[in-house]
Amino acid sequence: MQRTRNPYPPEFREQMVALVRSGRSVECLAREYEPCAATIHEWVRQEASADRDDLNSLTSEEREELRQLRREVKQLHQESDILSKAAA
Predict the structure, then answer these.
(1) CA torsion 79→82→84→87, rounded to 10°?
(2) What pLDDT was estimated at residue 2?
(3) pLDDT at 3
(4) Model pTM greater than 0.70?
(5) 38-66: per-residue pLDDT in tens?
(6) Distance of CA 42 to CAs 17, 26, 37, 78, Å?
(7) Cα 16 to Cα 3: distance, rounded to the nearest angstrom
(8) How far is residue 73's CA from residue 67's CA, in Å, rounded to a whole number?
């Protein structure tokens, strides 16, 4: 008889996806928590697909704002890297 388990709660799935997006490796999370790496990869893929669907429903003003915010985040990351290297 095949073993099955109850589905993971949506909050847990969201936390795993957030950890992957923050830079944690899927393999590390799979070792630390119960889901296998393939399951976590699938959650990340599903979330990315949902994000793309959300982008298609944006107005042109919202898309422009998103582009501007992404540029600002990129610039802030670059400045942060420069400052951390200068402090070292």
Answers:
(1) -130
(2) 62
(3) 65
(4) no
(5) 999 999 999 888 877 777 777 889 889 98
(6) 10, 11, 9, 31
(7) 23
(8) 10
Same structural domain, 43 and 83:
no
Any alpha helices (H) in 22-88, and if so which ranges?
26-32, 37-56, 60-87
**What domain range includes position 72?**
59-88
Using left for φ > 0, alpha for ψ between -120 and 50, and beta otherwise, residue 43 falls in alpha
Q: Check residue 6 and report its DSSP letter.
A: P
Share above pLDDT 70 across residues of the chain, in percent, rounded to a whole number: 95
The total number of structural domains that make up the chain: 2
> Backbone phi, then psi, for 7, in 5-degree steps?
-60, 150
Token output for 49: 């697909």
Is the CB of residue 13 less than 8 Å from the CB of residue 43? yes
Q: Three-state DSSP class for 13?
A: helix
